[in-house]
């Protein structure tokens, strides 16, 4: 993975930069010892590593502002970091950059059940937002699978989704306002406890901008009352096509399940070997979950079962109690762990129109043979977000590169059928160079023009999202301006 | 000056590229948009549904497509636009057909916005021509997409000042089997807000909360809507009624009557045929009664649990000055010859960012100039 050559001038001025940053931060909030900065050399895309120049861990919006102001003056690139769980390298540093971590900013600032909002500092983890309102039976809906560890800051940067977004939407649909610090240290407020923007919807473009437009330090989030209950049903088919038709028919019938998960045979086999959830051996397994009161759940499940039966399932298993519901989810929830047991794997994240599901799965199967690498598919079927897991051997020379090439081909296939490169993980460094497959030069230019306004010198997370060649002139302007 | 009526995206791009002065962008012409300077550019030639996949809950259509055409296609598959876009014609006394592009460009949403989101939350992708004549696409037609910056949200509600939409992809949702409305009579504004926020904070999936201080019979009525399958709606209606034991309750279970009642709110029918200015004030629900009291309005009513105040005020009354600083913003929807800005002025750093972004997309300042900025 190519990264820009570090700016030698900045490396040489490190002592001066560190001294200036130390002056505006508490004593333990700046890390510059190379032995300690190593802890920040990568995020969850661990194949690529590079220790940063230094790490700042501010505790307040004002400290973030002071740090950014200095970096702006010194021309230091800044890589914002939540919890470092990005699978796309969104928080990977370069040797001349400052990591600006918000992990110490994790307070709940306001909880307001009447207006159904919570205001938090963005270093707070996703799950602990729900944790703060759970005693009153409320929750924060977006639930990325890393929710125990991932921070709201990162969720906003990547517009994170989750298994339940078919009903509740992704981060952007649940984010009402932010306090954000621009690269020059200016603090701005966007949105709040009210709905919709007064003018241009800048909040809408901040969400999902991968830390390239500003550092979000506080967020106002929508909270919802928990449903009375939820129950899954497991449906097994002997072909992907039929499972795909069943999904489409369920949606067309007017039921809106909170989740429709899809697993293919390689995935089912791995999960069975690992978690022994008692899944039937078949080509395609669906887990469909609905919510509501017991009567409502019964009403919806009856309809779903009726539709499922029309497609002649190999098996249809309903959860009679919480224990059986747990068993139905057990295999799915352990899917990634199960794959990790048998192999190294790379997790992809493309989205496709649901109607293309059978074709895409068939093509992935063919490509798997061509590349000689196994692949298992887990899929949020309701919204078309695929997570193919490509199996490879990290210790085998050239296998990672082969795996990456296979992955790129799968993502190009997603674009070819009308989908996109990433549904919820973000572009980061991982899919940067594939952007030209989805977007024309004018499309990328329009996006980069936004960054020009927010961060004219391209200092915030500069080597991400856009192909290096496309952003080169802009990134070099900052260096030339020094 | 004759109006421009491009028949394709390429023709539109050429028209903008060769424009010598301001362009006034018009979809169906059902909303008046400020001073309406320059040559009229109509999007009606960019019409038609290009893709509709009911099983994927997705529709893609040209910006000039009449909304009625989209709604009819969805209706045939028992689906709908869940964000419930308002029809401005009755309030503004306009004719013409609302278009998809107009709805998207103005982020037009109705009562269900409080539960399921605004037009911007259902917009999956756009194609547009910017102020220099470049054709740009963003997003796509899938529900989960974080590939690059979300310019779709930026285009939603940008009122044509960033570019002229040519195509919009939308997420659609199934129509519910039935709907019902719990009506509470006689509440004052504060108690009504309390009742509505209580209903929204329940697990009963309420899809609309509105309060009319003067209902059809002249007395206050609070409306709480639920939708879904028959048994479920019946169950939730009773559960909701149980939240308000000492209130004067009525239950409306005829879906047609319920739909009519909510169209009354959605289209601001209480203010049809009146004179004066009409404002939409977006705020925190619990702040609404105090804000409404400051307006010296002829009449107000509340949608979104109070998060949206509709106010009818004497012509030219500067309600922003009366409100002072508050959490939210006020938009002048029907202006009777006043010089007040239609959109709420923003704090300096935000205004600078917005202006900077707008200038990137329309450096000559020719697209609906002055509409969003004073």
UniProtKB/TrEMBL annotation, chain A:
<keyword id="KW-0560">Oxidoreductase</keyword>
<dbReference type="InterPro" id="IPR004113">
    <property type="entry name" value="FAD-bd_oxidored_4_C"/>
</dbReference>
<dbReference type="InterPro" id="IPR051914">
    <property type="entry name" value="FAD-linked_OxidoTrans_Type4"/>
</dbReference>
<feature type="domain" description="FAD-binding PCMH-type">
    <location>
        <begin position="48"/>
        <end position="226"/>
    </location>
</feature>
<dbReference type="Pfam" id="PF02913">
    <property type="entry name" value="FAD-oxidase_C"/>
</dbReference>
<dbReference type="InterPro" id="IPR006094">
    <property type="entry name" value="Oxid_FAD_bind_N"/>
</dbReference>
<keyword id="KW-0274">FAD</keyword>
<dbReference type="InterPro" id="IPR016166">
    <property type="entry name" value="FAD-bd_PCMH"/>
</dbReference>
<dbReference type="InterPro" id="IPR016169">
    <property type="entry name" value="FAD-bd_PCMH_sub2"/>
</dbReference>
<protein>
    <submittedName>
        <fullName>Glycolate oxidase</fullName>
    </submittedName>
</protein>
<dbReference type="InterPro" id="IPR016171">
    <property type="entry name" value="Vanillyl_alc_oxidase_C-sub2"/>
</dbReference>
<dbReference type="Pfam" id="PF01565">
    <property type="entry name" value="FAD_binding_4"/>
</dbReference>
<dbReference type="InterPro" id="IPR016164">
    <property type="entry name" value="FAD-linked_Oxase-like_C"/>
</dbReference>
<keyword id="KW-0285">Flavoprotein</keyword>
<dbReference type="InterPro" id="IPR036318">
    <property type="entry name" value="FAD-bd_PCMH-like_sf"/>
</dbReference>
<dbReference type="GO" id="GO:0071949">
    <property type="term" value="F:FAD binding"/>
</dbReference>
<dbReference type="GO" id="GO:0016491">
    <property type="term" value="F:oxidoreductase activity"/>
</dbReference>
UniProtKB/TrEMBL annotation, chain B:
<dbReference type="InterPro" id="IPR006094">
    <property type="entry name" value="Oxid_FAD_bind_N"/>
</dbReference>
<dbReference type="GO" id="GO:0071949">
    <property type="term" value="F:FAD binding"/>
</dbReference>
<protein>
    <submittedName>
        <fullName>Glycolate oxidase FAD binding subunit</fullName>
    </submittedName>
</protein>
<dbReference type="InterPro" id="IPR016164">
    <property type="entry name" value="FAD-linked_Oxase-like_C"/>
</dbReference>
<keyword id="KW-0285">Flavoprotein</keyword>
<keyword id="KW-0274">FAD</keyword>
<feature type="domain" description="FAD-binding PCMH-type">
    <location>
        <begin position="1"/>
        <end position="175"/>
    </location>
</feature>
<dbReference type="GO" id="GO:0003824">
    <property type="term" value="F:catalytic activity"/>
</dbReference>
<dbReference type="InterPro" id="IPR036318">
    <property type="entry name" value="FAD-bd_PCMH-like_sf"/>
</dbReference>
<dbReference type="InterPro" id="IPR016169">
    <property type="entry name" value="FAD-bd_PCMH_sub2"/>
</dbReference>
<dbReference type="InterPro" id="IPR016166">
    <property type="entry name" value="FAD-bd_PCMH"/>
</dbReference>
<dbReference type="Pfam" id="PF01565">
    <property type="entry name" value="FAD_binding_4"/>
</dbReference>
